[in-house]
Amino acid sequence: MARVAVIDPKSATGDAKALLYAVQSALGMVPNFIRVLANSPAALQAFLGLHGIAGAGTLDAMTRERIALAVAEQNACQYCVSAHTAIGRKAGLDSDEMLANRAGRSSDARAAAALTFAMALVEHTGQVTAAEVEAVRAAGHTDGEIIEIITHVAMNIFTNLLGKATQVEIDFPRVDLTRAA
Fold this sequence. Notes:
2 domains
């Protein structure tokens, strides 16, 4: 059971109601994570804004989901691993690739470099080395893409923190973490 209220879109009011309706219209559902975030319409609006802007970047959907899976597993957030496994499947990732992504690997060399960099960002709280930056660049990522990788890592750390702190109920097919939290 979640530690904070899970807002029912049907009984929401004001800005929360409008934001939840927008999510429902876009996704066909309102995930519990979003319903918990709706306790603060300002926080929900900020997240949706960042999510929309980050999604409009040059990183493809599969790479964005690979990053989300790697960060969620690294931070031991079962809600986010479960959610991004479902979303990753819709983006075109297969089960073997997603399992590799959760370990920071990929069958795609360019994506693997992005994941290595993403995991270094998490492990070292952003204090990456010049060699780590050069490695992701050498794999073909532009400076703009490096900034997008950092943005996606930060956004996913936020969702991991929220999922774990609130203990929101998983409303996607449950996927177990590969390592204990």
